[in-house]
Amino acid sequence: MKIAVLAGGVGGARFVRALTEVVDPRDVTVIANVGDDLEVHGLHVSPDLDTLLYTLSGLGDDERGWGRAGETWNASETIELLGGETWFQLGDRDIGLHLVRTEALSRGEPLSAVTARLARSVGLVVTLLPATDDRLRTRMRTPAGELDFQDWFVARGQRDRVNEVVYEGAEAARAAPGVLEALEEAELIAIAPSNPFVSIGPILAVRAISEALERRRDRLVAVSPLIGGRAVKGPAGAMFASLAGGTGPAQVTDCYKGLIGALVLDEADADGVDAVAERGVRPLVTRTLMSEPDARRALVETVLGLVPATT
Ligand code: GDP
Ligand code: CA
């Protein structure tokens, strides 16, 4: 069974890893957010692609959730010593990847091609695709003005209230090669429990992608990133409160209105099933905390259960 997954970084990677504990990774295509991408010291960094690449190839630092295991920070220390900017942390091993990618991009190689090459080099089995090869950047409208995503997230530590999230470049962005084909071929399309506003939103903002998804509603299932009305990690809870007016399954459903056929929500949020059903979406309740092996299996089986068994 071919499966396509829309994913951000940490929540996306954990979900895809859980999925590939059950299904053949060769059947899985991951369509990743690039709205977080940025230039640091002249290097093109793609945080979500890298989290996916590292986590799914076994090179990642599981505890931190991002970056490489066994990382060292010599370059960073030198940058600091020399008075350079260190607000965005880059480990030495990580920098190696950014050097290869940046050099390739500067030669005109598309991001999708570089990503495929990097993935092959580290022995990744799932297919990893950026949502687009075109420039697409998430920006946060706050009382302090409009900020680059990483400026808001890392440099300013998410202290500014978010009034609106915009996806610069999305109008003109085309789907990267392979993305629409993967969405068409997939028997199941899953939206990982990634942040809907800053991880999935930028992917859906690529018009060709949301159009392709509209035709697949019956096979499209999202997993809620909220457990008991709170994010497992990161700013999703606060963003739901300020941008969606609440932190329950109703608000998660509204993020994907008209798009998804089913929503997987945690047992802790089971009181929200009616609100999901009222919105014409099938609620599927299970345990969703992916650090727990039992919950992980239950979650994946619930997601896979959306597709009727065939012989
Ligand atoms: P980022 O791009 O690295 O910020 O990560 P994502 O957007 O892919 O994922 C962040 C989201 O994953 C957060 O909103 C978390 O609540 C969610 N998340 C992380 N771990 C789990 C988990 O075990 N279960 C569920 N349901 N959500 C999770
Ligand atoms: Ca991200």
Secondary structure: elements and pairs:
Elements: E1 3-7, H1 10-20, E2 28-32, E3 38-40, E4 43-45, H2 47-57, H3 74-81, H4 92-106, H5 111-121, E5 127-130, E6 137-142, E7 145-148, H6 149-155, E8 164-168, H7 179-185, E9 188-191, H8 196-204, H9 207-214, E10 220-223, E11 226-227, E12 230-231, H10 236-244, H11 249-255, E13 262-266, H12 273-278, E14 282-286, H13 293-304
The protein binds guanosine-5'-diphosphate and calcium ion (CA).
Mean pLDDT, to the nearest integer, reads 96
Q: Please summarize the sheet with the most strands.
A: 7 strands, parallel
Order of helices and strands: EHEEEHHHHEEEHEHEHHEEEHHEHEH
- Percentage of residues in DSSP E strands: 15-25%
Helices, by number, come to: 13
Distance between the termini: 11 Å
Report the count of strand segments.
Answer: 14
Structural class determined from secondary elements: alpha/beta
Lateral strand order in the biggest sheet:
5-2-1-9-10-13-14
What ligands does this structure carry? guanosine-5'-diphosphate, calcium ion
Radius of gyration: 19 Å
Helix content: 25-40%
Unreliable sequence segments:
none
Shape: globular
